[in-house]
Amino acid sequence: MAAPESGDGNNGAARMVTLISSDNTRFEVEAAAASLSQTLQLTILDGGGGGGDGIPLPNVDSATLSKVLEYCIKHAPAAANGGAPNATAVDRAELERFDNEFVNIDQSVLYSLIMAAHNLEIEGLQSLVAKKVADMIKGKSPMEIRRTLGFPDPTPEEQAEMNAHMLEYGWAYE
Amino acid sequence: MPSPRKKSNPTLTSDLPEEVIADILSRLPGKYVLRFRAVCKAWLRITTDPHFLAAHMRRRPLELVLCTLLEERPLSGDQVGSSRDLAFDSIPVTAADPADQRRLIRYPGYYTSTPADLTYFGSGNFPIASCAGVFLFRLDTRYAICNPVTRQWTELPQLPKRCMFEYGLYFHRPSGEFRFLCRSGYFANDVTEYYITSTGATEPRLVISTGDVDEAANKMIRWIGNCTDHLTHVVLQDRLHWKVPSSTGDCNLVVFDTLLEMFHLMSAPPMSSKCSKLFDMNQRLAMVNFGLTHIDLWFLEDYNAGEWVHRHQIVTPPTLTVLGDPQREPWSNNYGRITAASDDADEVILGKVGSLMVYNVRTKAMRALDFICEDSWHGSGPRHLFRESLMPHVARSSAGHPLVQFG
């Protein structure tokens, strides 16, 4: 056992775990950061992911996982503080700045992130990405949404229903 | 012929799990959810599901309703003169960003001024109560509720003519109905009867009198219907709470249990002035008292034991000292405009028309909301809080009112 140096955790240096992406890339990360994932938390509490083992994540590719971990590492200290009730305004502003920057990304990356956050159950990330997508679609018409989301063109019957809805709820289209 | 669109890869496609789509849509203001019901059948199904509607409402911010007189416009055509619209706008209690102010209701041509005359059509069609996403309107001798987002109107079964004291609008969870409690009996010797009229019924129902309370309590309960901000009662734990002054100068709380349909009294904290307001902070009953020198915040720590705890004392900012003036009578003009509201674990909005402050209970910091501009005369009615909802009213819908326009 290494002698405690930093006072970080009980064993001195922070405990590390290894996560393995679907394309077999290994990521070594502090257990506290990975534990933001509800899915991983139990495994990590049971002592998993340490040493040469690693936790395989067959649904998350390396590009997405590195993005997810970037978020977790940034948010882990605040989360350890129990949602950071004592965080200073500066800390909060910095996290907010990070979050805004973080979701300023391509739609395809956003999609992978939603799925990863959902599968890994990372609450903060889920809500951050969901909010971003909500903001993106807010001003659009139903037809624009269909196009943005890659839906096939509506059938004549669907088109008629869309028109009827617009007539009935005109104010919701203003 | 439209060609089938190629799926660009990978994109936000329909293969997102429905719970993820629901989570995204539940973060949108009601107007957009309403619009996106036309996107496809799956989105229509998701956004009309009762669980979705409940989650969506929980995510809507609590908003303060402001009454504003809009800019003067010349009359149309050959007429000489001008008119002004009156509007009810809302602004989130926590965001407090001028950009978040939006129009809920508009009264076109509220004031009309010609060389010969100045006319206005009075406050008869203004919303008199707000609850769970709907406003209550008094339209001549009838009452109707309307959801400004879905614009569904429902007229309430007509109350007996002698039923002239309004008590409270509430959402009755077990039945999913909106209910409205009223009282009859004008003079002290008149028989006092309480009626409930609701969206789910065809006629009003006579409910129990005042329950097991003594004459003094009875008096207090009768008093509610006469006070100016009676329709801004606090709903918590299926109960309506009103603050009433007692003969000793202190305050009492009158509670109506909407499940048992009975009144009872509850203790209130000691007050240093006549100017106080009951509100709900984080599902807890709270009371603010505006004094000349200090503003006190009390919280009901133990609901069943009626245990009030004094948590904060704030130096009264100069703009609010008028509220604590001992010479001021509770029924004086701007009494009804007092605001206290919270939608957050930390922040509470306090004050009156024209001088609203935000107090943070964690940092104990106070800041002014000076951008909120409101017409002080029309803003003198009850101060309503509003939270959007897309929940449909059980019951038939009815036609709206020509003078009330939304958006």
From TrEMBL, chain A:
InterPro entries: SKP1 (IPR016897), SKP1-like (IPR001232), SKP1-like_dim_sf (IPR036296), SKP1/BTB/POZ_sf (IPR011333), Skp1_comp_dimer (IPR016072), Skp1_comp_POZ (IPR016073). Coiled coil: none annotated. Pathway: Protein modification; protein ubiquitination. Keywords: Ubl conjugation pathway. This is SKP1-like protein. Residues 16-75 form the SKP1 component POZ domain. Belongs to the SKP1 family. Involved in ubiquitination and subsequent proteasomal degradation of target proteins. Together with CUL1, RBX1 and a F-box protein, it forms a SCF E3 ubiquitin ligase complex. The functional specificity of this complex depends on the type of F-box protein. In the SCF complex, it serves as an adapter that links the F-box protein to CUL1. The keyword Phosphoprotein does not apply. GO terms for biological process: jasmonic acid mediated signaling pathway; protein ubiquitination; ubiquitin-dependent protein catabolic process. Part of a SCF (SKP1-cullin-F-box) protein ligase complex. It comes from Eleusine coracana subsp. coracana. SUPFAM superfamilies: POZ domain, Skp1 dimerisation domain-like.
Automatic annotation (TrEMBL), chain B:
InterPro entries: F-box-assoc_dom_typ3, F-box-assoc_interact_dom, F-box-like_dom_sf, F-box_dom, SCF_F-box_component. Residues 10-57 form the F-box domain. SMART domains: FBOX. Pfam families: F-box (PF00646), FBA_3 (PF08268). CDD domains: F-box_AtFBW1-like (cd22157). This is F-box domain-containing protein. It comes from Eleusine coracana subsp. coracana. The gene is gb09050.
